[in-house]
């Protein structure tokens, strides 16, 4: 990943009621025209309805590969809003996917610096947004939800900016590898520990993974293994 990538779109959204649902969300994003300030809490003008699951310093920016939309549209032609900005992302680009992006990767974006902090976990809002349950299930099964970034350096960003990869931790874990291990029914404990202590991973994920490690260890002892 030596060549920089161009950001095709920068998106923000406002909290609004979901179509056909009494609940609200800011998953519907619209493209920003011109530069927008990126702070440690996210893009100025962007909102989140559920701050427990979205937003905050560990989820300041959601990046979703634009090429995933073509795959999803081909599989689910009747689903709605399968276009950049349609599934709640703040950044859209081509060439960066879960296969070549790692936890802890640092990028220069316009006047800001960002770091990949965790994968996105698909939620019920994708089902409501697309009006097709299979989309969220496919995204979850194949680890295609994109990723969140924390902001290391505040600055202005805009569509058309270069997204330049500037740093990767030693022995980094790709997002694709992360999901392969997490989705395993009984992954090796050393593989889980490698994920849990990946440089740059958000603390909430580290705690969650280590809870699973302890469960596996306790059950291994209980079974006499």
Q: How does this model look, in words?
A:
The chain is of the alpha+beta class and 225 residues long. It has one domain (5-169): PK beta-barrel domain-like (M1 Pyruvate Kinase, Domain 3, Beta Barrel). It has six helices and 13 strands. The strands form three sheets. It has a seven-stranded mixed beta barrel. A three-stranded antiparallel sheet has the order 6-5-12, with no helix packed on it. A two-stranded antiparallel sheet has the order 2-3. Strand 9 and strand 10 form a beta hairpin. The longest helix has 20 residues, at 203-222. It starts with a strand and ends with a helix.
Quick take:
The chain has 225 residues and is of the alpha+beta class. 28% of the residues lie in helices and 25% in strands.
On the 0-100 scale, what is the average pLDDT? 93
Ranges where pLDDT stays below 50 over 5 or more residues in a row are none
- Which architecture per CATH? Beta Barrel
Radius of gyration: 18 Å
Number of domains: 1
Strand content: 15-25%
Provide the CATH top-level class: Mainly Beta
CATH topology: M1 Pyruvate Kinase, Domain 3
Helix content: 25-40%
With helices defined by DSSP (H or I, 4 residues minimum), what is the helix count? 6
Strand order in space, largest sheet: 1-8-7-11-10-9-13
Structural class: alpha+beta
**Using DSSP, what is the number of strands?**
13
Topology as H/E string? EEEEEEEHEEEHHEEEHHH
Distance between the termini: 42 Å
Large-scale geometry? globular
Tell me which oligomeric state these chains represent.
single chain
Profile the largest sheet: 7 strands, mixed, barrel
The named CATH superfamily: PK beta-barrel domain-like
């Amino acid at each position: 990943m030596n060549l920089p990538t161009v950001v095709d779109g920068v998106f923000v959204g406002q909290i609004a009621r979901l179509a056909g649902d009494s609940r609200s969300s800011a998953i519907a994003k619209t493209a920003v025209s011109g530069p927008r300030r990126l702070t440690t809490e996210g893009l100025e003008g962007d909102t989140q309805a559920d701050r427990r699951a979205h937003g905050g310093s560990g989820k300041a920016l959601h990046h979703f590969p634009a090429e995933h939309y073509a795959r999803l549209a081909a599989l689910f032609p009747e689903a709605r809003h399968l276009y950049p900005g349609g599934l709640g992302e703040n950044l859209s680009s081509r060439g960066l996917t879960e296969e070549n992006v790692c936890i802890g990767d640092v990028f220069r974006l316009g006047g800001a610096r960002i770091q990949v902090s965790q994968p996105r976990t698909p939620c019920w809002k994708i089902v409501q947004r697309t009006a097709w349950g299979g989309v969220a299930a496919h995204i979850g099964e194949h680890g295609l939800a994109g990723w969140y970034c924390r902001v290391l350096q505040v600055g202005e960003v805009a569509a058309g900016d270069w997204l330049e990869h500037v740093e990767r931790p030693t022995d980094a874990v790709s997002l694709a590898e992360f999901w392969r291990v997490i989705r395993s029914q009984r992954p090796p404990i050393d593989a889980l520990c490698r994920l849990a202590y990946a440089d740059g991973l958000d603390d909430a994920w580290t705690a969650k993974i280590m809870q699973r490690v302890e469960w596996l260890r306790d059950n291994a002892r209980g079974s006499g293994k």
